[in-house]
Amino acid sequence: FDRGYISPQFVTNAEKLIVEFENARILITDQKISTIKEIVPLLEKTTQLRAPLVIIAEDLSGEALATLVVNKLRG
């Protein structure tokens, strides 16, 4: 895991170019995530808890990445 942010859209502090969260839930996996259905249960739970989710994965791409970026842009 030596890649950093997979998309600049996830930066929460544009001045410092960092991501800052309080009480975040963290998903760490050595798997590649490419479809949103792979993480829907976790997304639903963190939404219900109103908790941010930090994903550390081998790769995040395709539909999963696109959906997460759109959701971030929508707030």
TrEMBL record:
Keywords: Chaperone
Record keyword Chaperone present: yes
GO-annotated biological processes: protein refolding
GO MF term list: ATP-dependent protein folding chaperone
InterPro entries: Cpn60/GroEL, GroEL-like_apical_dom_sf
Family: Belongs to the chaperonin (HSP60) family.
Matching PANTHER family: 60 KDA HEAT SHOCK PROTEIN, MITOCHONDRIAL
Protein name: Molecular chaperone GroEL
Native source organism of the sequence: Pinus pinaster
